[in-house]
């Protein structure tokens, strides 16, 4: 009896000081769990990076206890309230212990289990994912696949160019004539967003995605152009055999580590004059007996390249000053002797004419640049312009032809060039051919002094084509139309 009493005295602190630790996952509305009684069947499908913890009963005064999860140690006070703890990584399937201020384990270890679909084989079959060196698709593109070859050319888009630092041909579509778009396996844009397109440009779409290494059933993603809006060329469609997810691949069930690697596909689209609609698709395998069959493709994302029109010319109206005279000759009575008839000339000197002109977007500056630096000038710029990638201000010199609007329609013709110093506004300089009134005179003839008969006047006056230089200001009629539309909208 004495020995039993002594044993009870030794165990009395345990009975008198029973302590419980509870955790709560998901905030104040989350389920409270006693760490000593977490059901073995309770699993969590999503990663856990934080929980709240409290000790019952509270200590007075409160002490500082520690939660140890792997290499991470966090502290909390034992004042009886829940305290949030955040961990740097997922803590599922990791032994977790509660240590006192001295470092002694007072509770645990316990585990929070993954759901079977997240472990690749249930809580008893943990699968480790071994990521490649490049952790993201963008890092893989910039640091490995196209290292030192990706260039962002202002508003045009991304291009792949051979450089002194990397002269290896890493793509079938290198050079200034191609514009490259990059996406991950979820359809997210990489490096930069989709730029405004230009009609008939060559677009190459790349898809970068993760696949298990050394797996016979590899995932492949492709970009599939839905339609081509011009008749030339052939639509190049994605035809890869694709798997619908990493987890659906035929993996070795006994394998404890899945090593992932980056994969990449590129697809050249048919040029189009209108918006380019395309899908990023993923096909799937299914095993039937000993043969592989491809199931219907799954659309991961639908994208569109907004294509801006290519303009080959413009219609302008303007005001020109010309040095080509068109005087008026009249036979009238002399002021000195009313019985004599003399010729009077009026409207002499330079003139101001209204004009209508057509401008060809064929810039000689661009032609010279194409001869000197052919790889840096996009082909469409030789015959037109797009406001998505417009000519630079010093390139906006274009040949122009026009007619006058003051006299008969074809009595005045203009040929020259214009410089567009602001969009829609330009300066014209050229040559003016026009039908003008002429008078044949003899040596010593003087206006309003030399006597001339009616018959002689009729013989000496005529109309002839003559030419002279002219200059003026032009305005694109689209600017005027937009102004009228804006006014009407008010």
From TrEMBL:
Q: Where is this region: Disordered?
A: 110-129
Give the organism the record lists.
Chitinophaga japonensis
**This protein's name:** Uncharacterized protein
Q: Which domain of life is it from?
A: Bacteria
């Amino acid at each position: 009896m004495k020995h039993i009493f002594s044993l009870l005295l030794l165990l009395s602190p345990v009975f008198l000081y029973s302590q419980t630790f509870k955790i709560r996952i998901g905030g104040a509305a989350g389920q409270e769990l006693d760490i000593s009684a977490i059901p073995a069947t309770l699993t969590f499908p999503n990663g856990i990076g934080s929980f709240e913890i409290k000790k019952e009963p509270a200590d007075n005064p409160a002490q500082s206890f520690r939660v140890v999860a792997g290499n991470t140690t966090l502290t909390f006070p034992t004042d009886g309230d829940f305290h949030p703890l955040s961990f740097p990584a997922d803590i599922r399937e990791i032994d977790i212990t509660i240590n006192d201020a001295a470092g002694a384990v007072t509770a645990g270890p316990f585990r929070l289990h993954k759901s079977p679909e997240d472990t690749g084989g249930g809580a008893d079959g943990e699968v480790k994912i071994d990521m490649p060196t490049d952790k993201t698709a963008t890092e893989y593109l910039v640091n490995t696949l196209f290292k030192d070859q990706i260039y962002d050319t202002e508003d045009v888009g991304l291009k792949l160019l051979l450089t002194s630092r990397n002269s290896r041909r890493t793509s079938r579509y290198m050079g200034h004539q191609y514009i490259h778009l990059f996406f991950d396996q979820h359809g997210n844009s990489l490096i930069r967003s989709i730029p405004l397109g230009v009609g008939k440009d060559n677009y190459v779409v790349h898809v970068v995605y993760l696949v298990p290494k050394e797996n016979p059933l590899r995932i492949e993603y492709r970009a599939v152009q839905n339609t081509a809006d011009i008749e030339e060329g052939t639509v190049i469609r994605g035809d890869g055999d694709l798997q619908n997810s990493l987890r659906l691949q035929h993996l070795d069930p006994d394998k404890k580590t899945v090593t992932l690697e980056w994969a990449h596909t590129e697809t050249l689209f048919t040029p189009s004059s209108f918006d380019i609609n395309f899908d990023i698709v993923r096909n799937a395998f299914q095993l039937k007996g000993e043969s592989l069959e491809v199931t219907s493709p799954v659309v991961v994302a639908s994208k569109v390249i907004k294509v801006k029109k290519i303009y080959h010319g413009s219609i302008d109206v303007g005001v020109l000053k010309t040095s080509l005279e068109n005087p008026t000759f009249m036979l009238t009575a002399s002021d000195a002797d009313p019985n004599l008839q003399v010729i009077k000339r009026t409207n002499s000197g330079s003139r101001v004419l209204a004009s209508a002109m057509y401008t060809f977007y064929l810039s000689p500056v661009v032609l010279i640049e194409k001869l000197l630096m052919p790889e840096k000038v996009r082909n469409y710029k030789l015959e037109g312009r797009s406001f998505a990638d417009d000519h630079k201000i010093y390139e906006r010199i274009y040949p122009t032809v026009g007619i006058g609007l003051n006299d008969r329609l074809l009595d005045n013709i203009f040929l020259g060039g214009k410089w567009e110093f602001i969009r829609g506004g330009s300066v014209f300089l050229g040559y003016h051919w026009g039908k003008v009134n002429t008078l044949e005179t003899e040596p010593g003839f003087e206006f309003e002094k030399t006597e001339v008969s009616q018959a002689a006047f009729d013989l000496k006056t005529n109309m002839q084509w003559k030419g002279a230089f002219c200059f003026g200001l032009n305005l694109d009629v689209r600017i005027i139309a937009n102004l009228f539309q804006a006014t009407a909208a008010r």
